[in-house]
């Protein structure tokens, strides 16, 4: 089949085609001296939430209504591996973040976060499944009783190289919980892959790694640092570096410690300011770290999907990775809301849209 490509390069528009599974429009957008091409790998999804590159060289995707699927990146063919039957999707809630075990070929474990009804109370839990080559089985609950709501449920999962599971949780609409270290809401949590609490967490026996978060929906490692994106209220979406035991301010501080009402709280509570904040808000969502030679201009950048702004952002970092040196929009407005981004080992960038119906997996590659 043919894939129609619309090539936009300053004033030149050209049409050509190459072999691909589905016929979809694509664009090429000048990025410095490189050019990218953008195509649709597959479509027909409903509220996809997590998109990640599996150690099996397939894309893995969650959909909010409870589906987990694998997608062949060569063909776009999608195979359902689970439809988790106790997922309850309400508003922004449902099946959210997912992570695969780093040694997936020998330890085929799949970690998911989702909302369900626990004795009629809307709740979030973290569950580990085993993939048997066809489907997910043997669910084991690692963490339960996380407050859920129709909005602000987080939840991104990320496994570190030392095999700790990081979990972003939202404030579930109850803002004071973010400053309460006895609550798992409004936090970045860190647990072992068996659900136990690591002995080197900031508070003994407590899964909290950092606190004072509103609703972080992006987590990624790069430069030896943990980065997060976090939705602000009507101001101050944030891009943060997450450090052990640190307070990130919500709900007392929005973005930087720049208002008189914030300065006192910041100094008394050692609040970490974001590397970058956006007002008006753009609704920052999934992030991934680009360090491939495939598109050299993007090396040492965090690539970030946004919902309200409908754009994919490049956050070029300084060499130490502790400051944003430059912000560039890679694509904007072509596909609606963008929920998550995933960078393949070959340097191609994959996105999922978050429009709610006929959602798409987008692939960004380099002009051949
Ligand atoms: Ca903050
Ligand atoms: Ca502020």
How is this structure best described in words?
This protein is mainly beta. It has a single domain, classed as TolB, C-terminal domain (Neuraminidase, 6 Propeller), CATH 2.120.10. Helices cover about 5% and strands about 50% of the residues. It is built from 1 helix and 27 strands. Strands 2-1-3-4-27-26-25 form a 7-stranded mixed β-sheet, with no helix packed on it. It has a 4-stranded antiparallel β-sheet with strand order 5-6-7-8, with no helix packed on it. Strands 9-10-11-12 form a 4-stranded antiparallel β-sheet, with no helix packed on it. The protein is globular. About 45% of the residues are buried. The N terminus is likely disordered. Bound molecules: calcium ion (2 copies). One calcium ion (CA) binds next to loops.
List the helices and strands and how they pair.
Blueprint: E1 2-9, E2 12-19, E3 27-31, E4 34-45, E5 48-53, E6 59-63, E7 67-71, E8 78-83, E9 95-100, E10 109-118, E11 121-131, E12 136-147, E13 157-159, E14 164-168, E15 187-192, E16 208-211, E17 216-222, E18 225-230, E19 237-242, H1 260-269, E20 276-278, E21 284-290, E22 301-306, E23 311-317, E24 324-332, E25 338-343, E26 349-353, E27 359-366
Parallel strand pairs: 1-3
Antiparallel strand pairs: 1-2, 3-4, 4-27, 5-6, 6-7, 7-8, 9-10, 10-11, 11-12, 13-14, 14-15, 15-16, 17-18, 18-19, 19-20, 21-22, 22-23, 23-24, 25-26, 26-27
The chain binds calcium ion (CA) (2 copies).
Please tally the β strands and state the result.
27
Considering DSSP H and I runs of 4 or more, what fraction of the residues is helical? under 10%
Instruction: Name the overall outline.
Output: globular
Largest sheet: 7 strands, mixed
Mean pLDDT: 92
Bound molecules: calcium ion
Q: Approximately how much beta-strand content do the residues carry?
A: over 45%
Which series of helices and strands comes N to C?
A: EEEEEEEEEEEEEEEEEEEHEEEEEEEE
Unreliable stretches covering 5 or more consecutive residues: 1-25
Number of helices: 1
How many distinct domains?
1
Report strand order across the widest sheet: 2-1-3-4-27-26-25
Could you tell me how far the N terminus lies from the C terminus, measured between alpha carbons in angstroms? 19 Å
Q: Which second-level CATH architecture applies? A: 6 Propeller
Rounded radius of gyration (Å): 20 Å
CATH topology: Neuraminidase
Query: What structural category characterises the helix and strand content?
Result: mainly beta
CATH class reads: Mainly Beta
Q: So, the CATH homologous superfamily?
A: TolB, C-terminal domain
